[in-house]
Amino acid sequence: MIYSLKNKIALVCGSTQGIGKAIALKLSEMGCAIILVSRNEEKLQATFTELDTSQGQKHQFLKVDFSNPLQVKQELDSFLKNHSGVHILINNSGGPKGGPIKDASTEEFISTFNQHLICNHILVQALYPKMIELEYGRIINIISTSVKQPLPNLGVSNTIRGAVASWSKTLANELGQYGITVNNILPGATDTIRLKELAEIKSQKTGQSIEEIFEEMANESPMKRIAKPHEVAAAVAFLASPEASYINGINLPVDGGRTKSL
């Protein structure tokens, strides 16, 4: 089955690398006009040139830094003044540095909370009224399997991802009456820069090679491999499509079966 998003507009956060970029590329192939969002203008421009335009899509990009929620709100409000609205919102942002929760500073929790939950909330509040008018709304949050099963040495991430999941479920309960769905994608180990950085940190601490660490990660999944970003993007594409109109308020792991719970 081929899903079409022709005449739809998607705002994709963290869309210049990894999972976010794969999502932007996939949705553009489905006919969707993309608004790329990132803090790096050079990478935004490079990704912009890779987006599919074969169905007449007109893409845009917005440079914002999610470490500054006030700036995100100001830039977004200014951008939307001359915009007809957005049908699909992909909340996606890089995770915090790793480490045990007992050693985490309060500043780490606050900055990560701002970057993820507060910025997500700013985006939703700015976009959902138009989704109601347009009679089409998909809000998809890229989180982590840690909302089902906390991951070792990712204390701050485990905590904030859980908060985002609960926020998302509450939104799903409130916005469902308008035909807006709110769902979470929970990627497992995925071949991204973020995963490489975590592996490098572990390598420095343990003396293991990066290759050995990646093999360990792969073996945690019944499929014995790490996911590719496009595999996560495919799940997002379905949830963003009209066919997923009655799927609301769920956590969908894309982890090859690594998570032990249902």
Architecture overview:
- The protein is built from eight helices and seven strands.
- The chain has 262 residues and is of the alpha/beta class.
- It has a seven-stranded parallel β-sheet, with helices on both faces.
- Helix 1 (18-29) crosses helix 8.
- The protein is globular.
- The mean pLDDT is 96.
What structural category characterises the helix and strand content? alpha/beta
Strand order of the main beta sheet, please? 3-2-1-4-5-6-7
Architecture of the largest domain, according to CATH? 3-Layer(aba) Sandwich
Estimate percent helicity. Answer: 40-55%
Q: How many helices in DSSP terms?
A: 8
Number of discrete domains: 2
What do the pLDDT scores average to?
Answer: 96
Radius of gyration: 18 Å
Note the gap between the termini.
Answer: 26 Å
Please give the CATH class of the largest domain.
Alpha Beta
The portion of residues forming beta strands comes to: 5-15%
The helix-strand sequence is EHEHEHEHEHEHHHE
How is the biggest beta sheet arranged? 7 strands, parallel
Total number of strands = 7
Under CATH, the topology of the largest domain can be stated as: Rossmann fold
The CATH homologous superfamily of the largest domain corresponds to: NAD(P)-binding Rossmann-like Domain
Q: What would you call the shape?
A: globular
Classify the oligomer. single chain
